[in-house]
Amino acid sequence: MKRILVIFAHPAIQKSRINQQMIRALRGLEWVTVNDLYDNYPDFYIDVIKEQQLLMLHDTIVWHHPFYWYSCPSLLKEWFDLVLEHDFAYGKKGTSLEGKDAISVLTTGARKEVYSEKGRNRYTINQFLIPFQQSAALCRMNYLPPFVVHGSYTIPSEEINNYAEQYKKLILSLRDEKLDKKKMNSVEYLNELIENNA
Amino acid sequence: MHNQDFFFQALIYLGAAVISVPIAKKMGLGSVLGYLLAGVIIGPFILGLVGNEADEVMHFAEFGVVLMLFVIGLELQPSLLWKMRKSIFGLGGLQVLITSVVIAAVAVLFGFRLNNAIAIGLILALSSTAIVIQTLTEKGLLRNVAGKSAFSVLLFQDMAVIPVLALLPILATWGSSINLAQSDLDKVTGVSSMPGWAQLLLITGVIAAIIFIGRFIARHVFRLVAETGLHEIFTALGLLLVIGIALAMDAIGLSPALGTFIAGVVLAENEYRHELESTIEPFKGLLLGLFFISVGASINFNLFVEQPFKILAYVLLLILLKFIVLFILGRIFKLRKGYDFLFAFLLAQSSEFSFVLISFSIQNQLFETQTAGILLLVVTLSMTISPLLLIFNDKAVRPILSRRENKQDFDEFDEINPVIIAGFGRFGLALGRFLLANKIQVTIIDSNPANVEILRKYGFKLFYGDVTRPQVLEKAGIEKAKMLILSMAEHEDALKIAKHVRKNYPRLRILARAKDIFHVFEFYKLHVRITQREMFNSATELGVKALVQLGFTRYEAYRAGRIFKHHEEQVLEELYSTWKEDEKEFIRETQRFSKQLSETLLTERNYTIHESDDAWDVDSARKESIESSSSKE
User: Fold this and answer.
1) For residue A15, which residues of chain B lie inside 8 Å, CB to CB?
2) CA-based nearest distance A43→chain B, Å
3) Which spans are transmembrane here (chain A) (predicted)?
């Protein structure tokens, strides 16, 4: 059993059908903690100590957010800036996060084709995620491929539930260690593993 | 017809009250004076609408005093009373003793026999609970230092009435041949013929019974009655309780007022306290009013017309003597900064209990009718003048005092700091704590001595002074200061200071607490641009909390609050420019007020809190995305 911490950041959750559903799917799962940053720190005043304790209490850290301007919403960036302190998360003495898994969970408005060399965005999601990947590496964490929901603008409402279910399945598999580490590192998105399992 | 007679009387009394009390209050005279004047006007010497029965009415209305003490008792927890024991027995005891002696001595000088002189001293030493408490309540001074001291004295006086009642017959028999007193005393205090120990036992027993019933039984009875849901039965129970106690106390020779006061204190911790209080309140108010009216109506102007100067001289002498004793005692008991004057003026009259004692003395043939009449007149007039004394204190003594105090009593500043905070009430306290927490060196000045005293106990360093006076600001080092923060609640004063400081120290930064939007504009005119409306932010914050409770996400609610505040700031600028243009047209001021108000409201209606959330409002992007994907197909 792994303890999962989902650090969720969405400034306008009330407008996002897909993220609402995804988060709702995680509610009440044992060993899973959802940490809604915009709900806990609406004024951006982050309780650093509490956040660090949460990190230490969990084995797998999930950064769940909509993909805004090729990055995360500002409060999550604030969280990175303040919580991952020197001597806590990185540096000679900063070994608190060592060996933990880290995963990005994203929703994007555009469809997947747009995120490719020939698409409008010219780079893949994994290329855009290099800052997150390297941040995790600096903290000596294992950064796994992301779980991505593309085309949130155009997903028909009836399909939203499928994504939410997939997400829930992913989190449960991570919790129960049902996914093979090697396989995980070989895919582009973790979505593929869940889809194949199903 | 007897009935018609009664209703006619009621009509006159109520009519007089309804007409004169509002007028008196409008003129700033307080309700007591209004009632008294109403009494004088309907009394036999002006309109003659009521006559001899005024005495009877007064007797009935004395029940108002009893009810009043009950209500006061309800507000006093026993622990509070215990805390006041020093001032009740010390201050109260000394007041009765010294005042009696002084008045008696003067009476001897006027040629009274010693026993009569002592009786006069004891009778006149008392002060009017009804007038003082009513005035204190009306002015919100009951919890003030002077108010509390006055209350302690009154409480002691109420207790003192009992031994004085016992003493008067002895004084009557002492050194004279008349010996009817004992039997007369029996009429009033039936138990006084018992041996001393039995009296003591009886009194203790009755009081113990009151306490026992109040503590253990009353609660259940109240609950039973409250459960019926019939409010009038609860009212009946309240009155029953008070009347019962009053009668019981009367029967054992104690003051009914004291008895109900004890009952009130005992019930102070009862959960039905507030309901009981609001039940008794209207009766208390009306009966007290009636009481004051009957005091006014019973003034014997015939006696007054015969020798007006002599009577007036007596009244003034009485008030002067009482005032001096009270003032000195107030000083001894550490009343300062004008509270000594307030305290002395408050209690300088004689009491409604004086009436009781005088009529009792007449029964005991202690005084001749003429003397008793003059005494009654003096007591009544002293009570009538009493509210005027307070007005005199407010309008004449206090201003002079505070002007003089400014020179003498204000604190000397022993440090000069870059920031001066003027006013350290609720607003200033939060502000000051914030700055101090950030290691900003501040000089805090507050003009409320009580506030200064309290906050010093909490470890704040603050100076007592009146910042509206230029000298005080100079001494506080305004020349070297960088910033002056006006956080006082007195809005006009704040503007006055801002004006003065702008002119004389143009480089000093001024920040100000503002009452409302127009107050902000007044500051703008003085080029004080950094202001904060005192209620605005906290109200908005509560609004944010409300949104969260109504289902908004915390961040959404927080942003809504921020957007609203920001929007207000912008509107403020716009409104200010319109306000400035129109400013000279004085006649249109009121119109402008309503016009601007509707303008503000209009802007409010058009704005939505989500307008700057567009970045996250994916609607347009979604629309575009859907359009482009369908066009490809």
Assistant:
1) 616-618
2) 7
3) none
